[in-house]
Amino acid sequence: SSRRSWGQLVTAGVGGTLLALYAVVIPFVTPALRKVCLPFVPATSTQIQNVLKMLENRSGSLVDIGSGDGRIVIAAAKKGFKAVGCELNPWLVWYSRYRAWRDGVHQNTKFYISDLWKVSFSCYTNVVVFGVPQMV
């Protein structure tokens, strides 16, 4: 009886671990399985500075299409923009929200789980697209 309980415990532990691993990995794998692969490529600090330089003397709202981990949105919010990030990967959206809260700009940022092909960006004054050539 003790041996059987031990076997059930091990089976439940392995099953739970695999389920948790699946839940974490699937949002990162599914974009690669799309017709057009859109991988997560984090922006470098130089690229963020280039975007901010392009936004000098501009104001209004900003949307970052394919915002990833929110680096550009957060940097723009620190410069006074009302910034929004649209990202397909829910894990990256949740992480972006956490980073915005941690950096104290959560009042000026919003992050949405959305397919960039199905969202209207007409209400934004500034549109940032940092993506791979397949996306552009």
TrEMBL record:
Gene3D superfamilies: Vaccinia Virus protein VP39. The keyword Transport does not apply. The keyword Transmembrane helix applies. GO terms for molecular function: protein-lysine N-methyltransferase activity. GO terms for biological process: methylation; regulation of mitochondrial ATP synthesis coupled proton transport. Keywords: Membrane, Methyltransferase, S-adenosyl-L-methionine, Transferase, Transmembrane, Transmembrane helix. The chain crosses the membrane at residues 6-29. GO terms for cellular component: mitochondrion. Belongs to the ANT/ATPSC lysine N-methyltransferase family. This is F173B methyltransferase. It comes from Eubucco bourcierii.
